[in-house]
Amino acid sequence: MHSTDRPLSEQAWRVLSAVVALAVLAPRLSEAQLWRHSFGDGFATDVAVRAGEVVVTGAVAGGMGQAVKLEAATGATVWQRDVGGDYYSGVAIDSAGGAFVSGVVAHSSLDFLVAKLAAGDGTVVWRYELAGNANSNEGAWDVAVNSAGDVVAGGHIQTNTGAAFTVVKLSGIDGSELWRYTAPASGAAVRVAIDAAGDVIAAGNYSTSPVTVVKLAGATGAELWRVTPALFFGDFNVFKLGLAVDGADDVIAVGRSAASDGDLVAIKLSGAFGAEVWRTAIDGAQHGDDFGEDVAVDAAGDVVAAGSTDETSPTQTDFLVVKLAGATGAEVWRQSVAGRGRFYDYAHRVMIDAAGDVLAAGTLTEDSPITGKRGGDLAVVKLAGSTGAILWLQQVYGHAPVGSAHLAEDAAALALDAVGNPIAAGLLAEGSASFGVAKFDGATGGDFLLSGKRLRVRDGDGVPARRSIDVKSSDPRLAGTPVGAVADPTVNGGVLELVNPGTGETASLALPAAGWSALGTPPGSLGYRYEDAQQAFGPCTKVSVEPKRMTARCTGAGISFSLDEPTQGSLGLRITTGPGALRRCVLFGGTVRRDHPSGGGIGGLFLAKGAPPPVTCP
Question: Following CA atoms 158, 161, 165, 170 in sequence, which dihedral angle do they give, to the nearest 10 degrees?
């Protein structure tokens, strides 16, 4: 697995040098995850999944590299390892569940490090360290494991002539060096991949130098070819460079056309000789700085690149995914997403599921509903592989104190489990920067857990016709649903459910497809509205699910929910569209204004306002 976007010049070195006690937080759901974990003050850099288990690597405060293994299904922690002085940048898992990590080890300076952690408990099986010149900083930035269980790592060491592009192959059993390749004064190998024949491809650069791509014999490390394509750059400081190998063992790399203010560039190189087969440049509408950060190849050989573009404004970048024809490099589609904070949005990682649909992860800017401050949210987007249409989009905000800065939360890494559910890892705010990982439902993205503005429920004393439900939520994390998707209510309808979590009493009100209409151009871009003024289909007369907003109004005897208990305590409401697909959930409890039962000639009333997002869907 390739390593991930690591903002070394800012967050990484800040966390590595900080001295803050590690605090492990209990797993918690928020927004739309199947599960979520945070592990103290730090950041995650890479994630890998194999045989139902997840390994996440990164760093935490106090200069400690951290690796955590979780059960993919539940998110339960299997083991957690913190190694003082180390920083883990990449991770790959072998067939026996052992985890290989790449990174740095701190001595008098930072040295190149690869380690193997035991599958069962995460103890260090072996360590490999490589140092260059004294008092110089080096590192291993990416790692991959081959079919025999041996490991390949790429990075750099310092020599008398500068940074040396370095790739090593190590025995998976004991970490002994099988071969080492160095190219003096050529930068750092920040991406490595292994082709079907077992040969190794590495790519990277240093500072603002052009990117070098090399192919090495898997058995010996001998250089088979080396190219430095013209006008093709990466960014070593944050490792913005993508590398992949297609089914014919040809090589795809993505970066940009200039050291600064360039276009996103994708290049296909012949696997046999390194000759350039095609190149495609992607320029945003504002003709500013566009960047490629990651690339994947689908089963048909087509190429999907992720990065950023200036599609909507010359003063911001947008989250970008673009699909190119594998044979020619011709653009098939592009999809850009601008965060509501209108600032710097990026797609850092991209993967393709078994159906050919695209999952991308990165950051989208937002004004936090918790702190009121602008910052980035960890974002995961699913796109239709054939058209690029957004199937779902989920943003995850952290939990910084009210009034504090909204930190730059980010998905630096992405993996898919066996059934295509995405697992994103990166930076989440938990009072300060935090090592975080979250799993999403691949089909729908999961539940929207929303802040609630108001819920009012009435129950006439012995007169069911006087019952009513009014709810309103205004939440910037509520995204739209594309027409034709499984959660499109014009196709599959929906249901509104009012539930008392304490007693289990639930009223389910049908919202059939015939009552729904799609809003905006293209249809669905502004959400969906349900209208049934004559109550032909049921008690709900108007329901709206739109980006940032959800409202519903239902009245009459068709509401099979009574307020006959002394108090309700709390009430939850969810609107589901599609066959058990996408749920939008609110829970009102701690901000109750009125809560009295019906009886004695007085109608019952539950009125609550200003509810925070629930921990889980009620």
Answer: -60
Domain shared by 397 and 496, yes or no: no
In terms of Cβ atoms closer than 10 Å to its own Cβ (0-12, 13-18, 19+), residue 281 is middle
Residues 437 and 529 placed together within one structural domain of the fold: no
Query: Of 244, 245, 241, whose CA–CA distance to 254 is shortest?
Result: 241
The string of pLDDT tens digits covering residues 587-610 is 999 789 999 999 888 899 999 999
Quote the tokens at residue 33.
Answer: 């995850």
Q: Are strands 528-531 and 516-518 parallel, antiparallel or unpaired?
A: antiparallel
| Residue 203 to residue 251: CA distance in whole angstroms | 10
Task: Provide the pLDDT for residue 538.
Answer: 95
φ, ψ dihedrals at 17, nearest 5°: -95, -10
Does residue 617 belong to any structural domain of this protein?
Answer: no
- Same-domain status, 184 and 55: yes
Q: How many domains does the chain have?
A: 2
Pairing of strands 448-449, 582-588: parallel
Q: Which domain holds residue 223?
A: 8-446
Residues 529 and 555 in one domain: yes
Which residue from 516, 485, 283, 519 is spatially nearest to 389, judged by alpha carbons?
485
540 backbone dihedrals φ, ψ, rounded to 5°? -85, 125
Select from 19, 18, 43, 9 the least CA-distant residue to 437.
43
- ∠ CA 93-95-96, nearest 5°, is 95
SS3 sequence, 326-369? CCCCCEEEEEEECCCCCCECEEEEEEECCCCCEEEEEEEEEECC
The stretches in the chain having pLDDT less than 70 are 1-33, 84-85, 134-135, 184-185, 206-208, 235-239, 259, 315, 340-343, 366-375, 397-408, 429-433, 476-477, 479-480, 482, 485-486, 579-581
User: Alpha-carbon distance 285 to 250, whole Å?
Assistant: 31
Q: Cα(295)–Cα(232) distance, rounded to whole angstroms?
A: 15
Query: Which pTM was predicted?
Result: 0.79
Same domain assignment for residues 129 and 60: yes
